[in-house]
Design brief:
Shape: globular
Number of helices: 3
Order of helices and strands: EHHEEEEEEH
Helix content: 25-40%
Distance between the termini: 39 Å
Radius of gyration: 15 Å
Length: about 160
Amino acid sequence: MKTDTRVRTRTMTGSSLLPGSKTEVFTKLLDINTLKYIAKPMMSFEAVKDFNSFTDDNFSWAEGKIYKFQLKIFGIIPLGVHTIKVIDFNRENYKIYTHEGNPLVPVWNHRIILKEVDSNTILYTDEVELYAGWKTCFIYLWSKIFYAHRQRRWLKLLEKID
């Protein structure tokens, strides 16, 4: 899912201050159930069984690996198979970069960056480069809402830990 430089992509960026350390949040990022929780109820991700060899219990993101999920809006409206290729999974710098896409949005490149503000607060940033042809402006607006929702869910998830 390499980005074609001839297409006009849009980049959405959203940041939030989250309670916890980079290590705590990054550890949560490793868990597929975190993705499912923070996306719910706007989006649901279910592993494509014929492609993926993992279960939710033995899941692990790994650089260079490709994962496929059945994607549904509100857990009801199917959008087809969403593919995630992990390009960079940097445990030392607390960064993740993926090339993603699905039939509706062929380019959905997602970068997650964690920066320490103090010992118990991090700046969590989602940066998404997307392209969906004539639908790009609509998908861009939807992504702003979706990632604001995800970051609210991150806060809720981390508050349960304390």
